[in-house]
């Protein structure tokens, strides 16, 4: 079974209102004001999955600046999961700035059949200390009650700039989560590169022992694939989920890259879907 852990969908209404949303929402503007930034609806994804022979995809939303966009985006993702329950798994956007409202919202989403939340970006106004000491403990307390999952955007501290690079969990936050908190997080984009620190034995041990998982979204734009081979060899294949970042990345092309990795067939099966079956209790 092949499962893509990281895709993004927008409703037709949102796609049609792109220009308006660029003017109205600062976060949306920061990525989608570029005409190169693709927006996909469910039909685009299903066609891509058919072409690439992908069985299921996690469909995620967008971290809007304006709170008013969250409910309609979640509604679209939930309705598509209901339309295609064998193919789509919804992770809906979650407004994390106000943690007083989080509990009820998470409970509502759980009742609606949502499996998780994502891709969460961290608002510029949230300080790292507030995030780690207040927001995340509260968030995980509730998420764990409902056995749900959460995917965070991550921002690697080095490398080239691209729209959307910022507003992720930083390498230092990821390290603090692993070392001091141990929240069950899917750190997207290879966890801002923290698996590269496997050459520090203390860090390697802490990552191995942690609950953190990593997805490979946009891997081909950021890293040499040899580091993924090495990370799977060092940490075992259980820590990693293949995710494309569709529609930014073509699912078929990305799968070809994953199939070329010099890893065992068992590791490849884990990476491409088996891990998510266990992680999300899909069977
Ligand atoms: Zn991301």
Key features?
283 residues, alpha/beta, TIM Barrel, 8-stranded parallel sheet, 14 helices, 10 strands, 48% helix, 13% strand, globular, binds zinc ion
Bound molecules: zinc ion
The Cα radius of gyration reads: 18 Å
Supply the CATH superfamily name. Metal-dependent hydrolases
Return the string of H and E elements. EHHHHEHEHEHEEEHEHHEHHEHH
CA-based shape: globular
Q: Might you state the CATH topology name?
A: TIM Barrel
Strand numbers in spatial order across the main sheet = 1-2-3-4-5-8-9-10
Strand content: 5-15%
Proportion in helices: 40-55%
Descriptive overview:
The chain has a single domain (3-279), classed as TIM Barrel, CATH 3.20.20.140. The protein is of the alpha/beta class. The strands form two sheets. It has an eight-stranded parallel beta sheet. The chain has a two-stranded parallel ribbon with strand order 6-7. 41% of the residues are buried. The protein is built from 14 helices and ten strands. The site of zinc ion has 5 residues, from helix 9. Zinc ion is lined by residues 119, 153, 188-189, 217.
Short synopsis of the structure:
The protein is an alpha/beta fold. Helices cover 48% and strands 13% of the residues.
List the helices and strands and how they pair.
Elements: E1 3-8, H1 12-16, H2 18-24, H3 26-32, H4 42-52, E2 56-60, H5 70-83, E3 88-92, H6 102-111, E4 116-120, H7 128-145, E5 149-152, E6 154-155, E7 169-170, H8 171-181, E8 186-187, H9 188-191, H10 201-209, E9 213-215, H11 219-222, H12 225-235, E10 240-241, H13 251-260, H14 265-279
Parallel strand pairs: 1-2, 2-3, 3-4, 4-5, 5-8, 6-7, 8-9, 9-10
Helix pairs in contact: 2-3, 4-13, 6-7
């Amino acid at each position: 079974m092949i499962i893509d852990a990281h895709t993004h969908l927008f409703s037709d209404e949102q796609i049609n209102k792109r220009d308006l949303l660029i003017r109205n929402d600062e976060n949306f503007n920061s990525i989608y004001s570029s005409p190169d930034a693709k927006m996909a609806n469910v039909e685009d994804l299903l066609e891509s999955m058919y072409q690439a022979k992908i069985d299921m995809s996690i469909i995620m939303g967008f971290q809007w600046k304006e709170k008013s966009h969250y409910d309609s985006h979640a509604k679209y993702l939930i309705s598509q999961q209901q339309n295609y329950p064998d193919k789509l798994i919804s992770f809906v956007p979650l407004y994390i700035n106000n943690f007083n409202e989080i509990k009820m919202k998470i409970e509502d989403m759980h009742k609606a059949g949502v499996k998780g939340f994502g891709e969460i970006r961290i608002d510029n106004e949230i300080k790292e200390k507030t995030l780690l000491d207040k927001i995340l403990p509260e968030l995980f307390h509730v998420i764990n009650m409902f056995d749900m999952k959460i995917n965070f955007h991550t921002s690697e501290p080095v490398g080239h700039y691209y729209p959307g690079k910022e507003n992720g969990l930083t390498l230092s936050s990821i390290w603090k989560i692993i070392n001091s908190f141990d929240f069950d997080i899917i750190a997207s984009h290879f966890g801002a590169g923290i698996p590269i620190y496997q050459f520090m034995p203390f860090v390697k041990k802490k990552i191995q022992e942690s609950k953190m998982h990593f997805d490979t979204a946009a891997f081909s734009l950021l890293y040499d694939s040899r580091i993924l081979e090495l990370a799977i060899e060092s940490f075992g294949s259980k820590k990693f989920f293949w995710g494309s970042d569709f529609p930014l990345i073509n699912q078929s092309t990305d799968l070809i890259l994953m199939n070329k990795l010099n890893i065992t067939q068992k590791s490849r099966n884990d990476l491409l879907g088996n891990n998510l079956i266990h992680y999300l209790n899909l069977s």
